[in-house]
């Protein structure tokens, strides 16, 4: 079986499923990888792949999530639809899925950066710190921060298939 192709075809969808269920990117990444390891393990002796690989992967993912909830003995608190509707007003399912995929792409590109670069991205784009405050916290000059930020953005933009400006707008 071509596991690289299967990985490329299903990883974003499974990551989004785990992220929606857990609300934590790190756990979602771990469970996405665990789902593929379980799939490889269960299909190791088979000569033919399942008829519907997507359904097979979703079943493994659902079971993995159930196992996690049982292990931690936690079930996410239900959220009333009325509480969520104001945030979803005017958004289509497609736009929400695209945003989720863009965030996953951006997260993967940022995780591939060295620690200092990740910290700079965190300070500037996610915490909204100024160049001066970011420079103070990292311990380099403001000009170095500007230069580093430019080089980082230049490096990760090609990795993002969608509009990176929607995610990182500075």
What's the topology here?
Blueprint: H1 3-22, H2 25-43, H3 53-72, H4 81-88, H5 93-111, H6 115-126, H7 131-138, H8 142-156
Tell me the Rg in angstroms. 19 Å
Beta-strand proportion: under 5%
Secondary-structure-based class equals mainly alpha
Quaternary state of this entry equals single chain
Considering the chains and any ligands shown, give keywords for the structure.
single chain; mainly alpha; Arc Repressor Mutant, subunit A; 71% helix; 0% strand
Can you walk me through this structure?
It is a single chain. Helix content is 71%, strand content 0%. By secondary structure, it is mainly alpha-helical. Helix 2 (25-43) crosses helix 3 (53-72) and helix 7 (131-138) packs across helix 8. The model has no long low-confidence stretch (mean pLDDT 78).
Structure summary:
The chain has 170 residues and is mostly helical.
